[in-house]
User: Which sequence fits this backbone?
């Protein structure tokens, strides 16, 4: 039973610069994965009418927001960054409570949000076009990047601060207005981010925030006729629907989906550093990063030594409430994620892989009401097994033994995804071969698969991403259209 106390905070939608209740008068509870009896907060269960108001507000605001100019828009983002910076501890704590990531990780992510805001605030002063020589000497020809219009933003729960900010900030600075629907599992954290934008004093209707079910509000947003572009991060199934709908209407779309990220361990890898990076890449955030390590492909010569060290270090991982000191890994973010991980553990065993460490559901005392599972390692995994092909989005490693680097790269590419991939080696030839042949948008050498820098392009190949890259200056491609201007005196 869910405990109901008057202390539970309730968050409204933010439409046309007002915090408003949904017409439904219904609320959705956001539950803590550390204790399913704890309601972290309540958000609006919005209706099609609420969505209509949000999209219309964004539509009516777009002309004035475009005219205000890029530099002035950047100034708003500097203000938002300062407000978010003053609330890092509080927002990080909400994130930990709401989706289980440990407090240091949540703080790191919130600080990252501040840095992303500052990066795009700086974009306010950077160039938005090029001069191109005309064949007519008396003419001036140049390009100018202009806003797309109303951008719909749909985000997942796994990076509840960073992903919304890396979409909202470039959308706004390049002159678009926004309707943002966050993941329900992390909607309270998202509401707090919107409070920071609201406090910075954006003009009416520029940023609108609406919570509710994916199939009603998410789907309704994707299909809305006033939308000019849609950016989505989440699962493959929903992402495919976004692409189809956008293509039918001829609007811009950017879709970031899953990963099945491989790490190759070469015979000449530094054992200690490699094990540390594999553990961090696979198990931080309970394996719920789209760039998390999930297939570890090991050359035969180092296999036994690597496995032994990996098992030793994995045993040391402390699992528990991410708000407590000394806890390295929190719970799965929700009951459904918990069930997914458990089902993949059964699938792996049924397929004939051997679970050689972890994969235990923790019970007793504070564990009973949470979604805790220990980090799991399978060996004797064949490439055609589901645990070697499908995204699990949990703390599970599949160990695969190979004869050489060529076989390792082939095994790494044997997936429909192509987000991130790493190799650990001290051999320049292996590194060059890997960076040339690997099918991944993020290619990492002697570094974990899960590292991302905000100033560099982010996105994948194959089934992981469709559309132009996010983050850094690459984001400009999606959030703007190019006008080619020719002036003859
Ligand atoms: P999800 O179920 O696809 O949900 C993502 C968002 O879409 C949520 O806001 C969700 O709303 C909404 N949604 C659900 N059904 C919808 C529909 N029919 N139409 C429109 N919107 C809909 O994914 P998730 O479980 O939150 O996130 C995990 C997935 O995200 C993983 O596959 C992971 O790999 C991927 N991910 C990818 C990246 C990347 O950059 N490549 C980054 C992070 C995560 P509700 O919450 O209300 O259902
Ligand atoms: Mg939750």
Assistant:
């Amino acid at each position: 039973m869910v405990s109901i106390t008057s202390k539970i905070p309730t968050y409204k939608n933010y439409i046309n610069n007002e915090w408003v209740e949904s017409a439904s008068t219904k609320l959705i509870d956001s539950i803590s994965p550390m204790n399913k009896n704890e309601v972290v907060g309540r958000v609006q269960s919005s209706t099609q009418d609420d969505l209509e108001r949000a999209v219309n507000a964004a539509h009516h605001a777009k002309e004035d927001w475009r005219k205000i100019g890029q530099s002035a828009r950047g100034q708003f983002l500097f203000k938002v960054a300062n407000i978010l910076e003053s609330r890092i501890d509080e927002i990080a704590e909400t994130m930990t409570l709401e989706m289980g990531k440990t407090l240091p990780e949540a703080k790191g992510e919130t600080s990252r949000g501040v840095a992303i805001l500052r990066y795009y605030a700086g974009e306010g002063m950077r160039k938005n076009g090029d001069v191109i020589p005309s064949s007519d000497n008396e003419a001036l020809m140049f390009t100018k990047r202009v806003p797309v219009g109303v951008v719909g933003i749909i985000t997942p729960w796994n990076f509840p601060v960073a992903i919304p900010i890396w979409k909202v900030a470039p959308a706004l600075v390049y002159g678009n207005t926004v309707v943002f629907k966050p993941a329900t599992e992390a909607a309270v954290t998202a509401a707090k981010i919107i409070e920071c934008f609201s406090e910075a004093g954006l003009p009416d209707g520029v940023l609108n925030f609406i919570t509710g079910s994916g199939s009603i509000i998410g789907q309704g947003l994707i299909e809305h006729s006033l939308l000019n572009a849609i950016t989505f991060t989440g699962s493959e199934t929903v992402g495919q629907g976004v692409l189809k709908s956008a293509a039918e209407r001829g609007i811009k779309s950017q879709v970031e989906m899953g990963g099945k990220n491989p790490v190759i361990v070469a015979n000449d890898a530094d054992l200690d550093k490699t094990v540390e990076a594999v553990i961090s890449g696979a198990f931080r955030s309970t394996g719920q990063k789209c760039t998390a390590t999930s297939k570890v492909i090991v050359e035969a010569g180092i296999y036994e030594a690597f496995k032994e060290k990996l098992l030793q270090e994995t045993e040391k991982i402390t699992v528990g409430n991410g708000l407590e000191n000394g806890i390295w890994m929190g719970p799965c973010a929700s009951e459904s994620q918990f069930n997914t991980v458990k089902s993949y553990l059964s699938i792996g065993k049924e397929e004939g892989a051997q679970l050689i460490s972890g994969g235990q559901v923790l019970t007793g005392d504070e564990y009973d009401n949470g979604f805790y599972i220990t980090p799991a390692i399978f060996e004797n995994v064949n490439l055609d097994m589901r645990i070697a092909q499908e995204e699990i989005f949990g703390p599970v490693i599949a160990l695969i033994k190979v004869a050489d680097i060529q076989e390792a790269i082939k095994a790494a590419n044997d997936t429909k995804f192509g987000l991130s991939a790493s190799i650990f080696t001290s051999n320049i030839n292996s590194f060059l071969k890997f960076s040339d042949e690997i099918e991944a948008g993020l290619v990492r050498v002697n570094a974990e698969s899960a590292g991302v820098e905000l100033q560099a392009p982010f996105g994948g190949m194959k089934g992981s991403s469709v559309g132009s890259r996010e983050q850094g200056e690459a984001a400009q491609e999606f959030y703007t259209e190019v006008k080619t201007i020719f002036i003859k005196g």
Q: What stands out?
A: The radius of gyration is 23 Å. The pocket of magnesium ion (ligand 2) is lined by residues 30-31, 33, 98-99, 185, 334 (CB under 6 Å). The longest helix spans residues 48-68.
